[in-house]
Design brief:
The protein has 88 residues and is an alpha+beta fold. It has one helix at residues 45-55; strands at residues 3-10, 13-20, 59-62, 71-76. The N and C termini lie far apart (33 Å).
Length: 88
């Protein structure tokens, strides 16, 4: 399975997308995967991720197509980010 993360801008928001080419998420489970206790292991991973991101104003949702891979989109609202240096 291959995965990748992308970054882009949409209007005045920053968008981070993490996706893979696995089986994806069924349409009726797209919101349920963020509920505590839902899932094959502890059911805490995505629930905690959403809660932590929510504290900072970042939203996360699954927007992939079932059968073609999972695609998580995180939206960072205007003013909730800062650019630091150029890595050099």
């Amino acid at each position: 399975m291959k995965s990748r993360c992308l970054y882009g801008e949409r209007e005045e928001e920053h968008v981070i997308v993490c996706e893979d080419d696995g089986v994806g998420v069924q349409a009726d489970e797209k919101e349920r995967i963020f509920e505590r206790g839902f899932g094959k292991n502890t059911g805490l991973g995505l629930a905690l991720s959403r809660e932590i991101l929510d504290i900072t104003g970042i939203t996360i949702r699954e927007v992939g197509e079932p059968g073609k891979g999972a695609r998580f989109e995180m939206v960072v609202p205007k003013g909730a980010w800062r650019m630091v240096g150029n890595g050099g």
